[in-house]
Write a structure and sequence with these properties.
Distance between the termini: 170 Å
Largest sheet: 5 strands, antiparallel
Radius of gyration: 52 Å
Strand order of the largest sheet: 1-12-9-6-7
Number of helices: 8
Number of strands: 12
Length: 406
């Protein structure tokens, strides 16, 4: 009996151990065939949720979990193909082939439609670009032709103006005549453009030397035309008046300009004219006579400026105006006196630290400061002061300054 109990006990022990081993084997088999694949499927699903594709395929079994794994692998492959297709379409490769996962793959079908739409839009845009490019090329050619024509016109106009400059310079008194008639003098003459609306004039009659600084309406070509009119009328005036005095010359000049420009006619709209300062000097008696239309005369004596103002109306009469006579001013000069007449170009020049006008007050102070220098040096100093004032500013008007010393 005891022997039988021991045998039964031993058998029971072996059976327990066998059950434990069998349980372990079943658990291992279950983990290997069910739990591990499910964990792998979960990991892949989590990565896909973050937009990360697995680098390798999961191993597929023959059971239901294996079928799930195969399905997941197909999903991953399909998404990879969809991603690659989208990248190719985004790069403009519209010929890339793509097959949806199934007839119900709405994402794949939408991507195919997007590819076709983008391809059509690209063809449309390429055609538009081709058309616009052709238009731009045609416009560029037309612009080049117009520019070439404009450049040709510019050269022709510039050549004409330069030739007009030679004509205008020809009517100005030459240097030798200036030195003969005004031995101690200077003329600072700076046109704004190639030709000028400012000009200076000299004449002789009855032991008198006449000289004038004239500022015509405008500058450039219009001013140059007016300067020709003014020069001819001054030349005629001194002949007609016999050189009596500056005021009578201005009266004649006023009538002559008005008649030349037909300013008295009822339908005339011409309001061109000129401002002028004209003087005569008798070097034997040292008598100075002056008349002016707006432009004054400065007399520098003993380091002080004496200003003689002109009449406040210009040369040039209009339909609704009665002609006015100019005032003749007589001044007895003293040896060493210096006379200055000028246009408004110098005082009106912009510049300085604040871009303001030079102004007449500063101009008078400059003349006084340079008064002890000889007239050639004064001209240099006036030019230097002008350039220093202008700096980068553009010259705004013709500039004319005449200085005479007795």
């Amino acid at each position: 009996m005891f022997s039988s109990f021991e045998t039964l006990n031993l058998l029971t022990s072996y059976l327990g151990i066998a059950l434990i081993v069998i349980g372990i084997l079943i658990a291992w088999y279950t983990t290997r065939t069910i739990v591990t694949p499910i964990r792998s499927l979960k990991a892949v699903a989590v990565k896909l949720g973050r937009g990360v594709f697995p680098k390798t395929h999961m191993k597929e079994g023959v059971d239901e979990i294996g079928e799930m794994t195969a399905a997941m692998n197909n999903v991953v492959d399909g998404l990879k193909r969809t991603k690659d297709f989208a990248q190719e379409v985004g790069a403009g490769n519209f010929d890339t082939e793509y097959k949806p996962l199934s007839s119900k793959d709405s994402l794949g079908i939408a991507l195919l439609k997007m590819r076709d739409d983008l391809a059509e839009n690209e063809r449309f845009l390429e055609e538009k670009v081709r058309q616009r490019t052709a238009e731009v090329v045609a416009q560029k050619e037309e612009l080049n032709q117009q520019r070439a024509q404009i450049e040709e016109y510019f050269v022709q106009v510039t050549d004409s103006i330069k030739y007009a400059q030679k004509i205008q310079e020809a009517i100005l008194p030459p240097d030798y005549q200036v030195k003969r008639m005004l031995p101690d003098s200077f003329i600072l003459y700076r046109p704004k453009d190639i030709v000028s609306g400012d000009f200076y004039w000299l004449g002789e009659a009855k032991d008198k030397v006449f000289f004038a600084a004239v500022d015509c309406t405008g500058h450039g070509v219009p001013g140059a035309f007016m300067s020709i009119v003014g020069y001819n009328q001054l030349k005629q005036a001194i002949i007609t008046t016999g050189g009596s005095n500056p005021a009578e010359i201005l009266d004649h000049l006023n009538r002559g300009v008005s008649e030349t420009l037909h300013q008295k006619e009822a339908n005339s709209t011409n309001k061109d004219g000129m401002d002028i300062a004209i003087c005569s000097i008798n070097y034997k008696t040292l008598e100075l006579e002056y008349a002016g239309a707006f432009n004054p005369l400065y007399l520098l004596r003993n380091s002080e400026i004496i200003q003689v103002k002109g009449n406040k109306f210009p040369i040039g009469s209009f339909v609704d105006e009665e002609p006015s006579n100019f005032t003749n001013n007589k001044i007895q000069l003293e040896t060493g006196d210096q006379i200055y007449i000028f246009s408004d170009g110098y005082p009106d020049q912009f510049g300085g630290p604040r871009g303001k006008k030079f102004m007449y007050k500063r101009f008078r102070e400059l003349l006084v400061a340079n008064g002890n220098e000889n007239l050639e040096k004064q001209k240099e100093l006036l030019q230097e002061s002008l350039f220093d004032w202008m700096k980068d500013e553009e010259q705004v008007d013709d500039i004319l300054v005449i200085g005479v010393k007795v």
